Amino acid sequence: MRLSYRCTLCKTENYIKTKCTNRHDLLMELGKDEIHETCKFCSSTNKKHINRLHAEINKAIILISFSVTLLLAILLLFGYGYISFAIFVIPVFSAFDQHKKASNFNRTMIK
Ligand SMILES: [Zn+2]
Fold this sequence. Notes:
By secondary structure, the chain is α+β, with helices and mostly antiparallel strands. The protein contains three helices and five strands. It has a three-stranded antiparallel beta sheet. A hairpin with a 6-residue loop joins strand 3 (34-38) and strand 4. It starts with a strand and ends with a helix. Zinc ion is lined by residues 7, 9-10, 12, 39, 41-42, 44.
């Protein structure tokens, strides 16, 4: 999961990686209710309140896990037949899990 915020200067979307699953954890991790991030595109410093961060699923990771699974399924196909496609359960579950985490994060606000 990653958090996104829009740069105040150039309006570009920036992303922060986090293991926190909700805003309270993020608050604990940061020790304050604001993040200070440098925009990757214009290098301006952004101050954002935690409540203004938006969680979203990391599409790149999902894409990679689907590709790896596809490769594995094709390899297993020779030994185990079509049952090998059952391993697609794994990336589907991980995608659902990421989506659930992101929506949980977006639902909770800190005071
Ligand atoms: Zn910027």
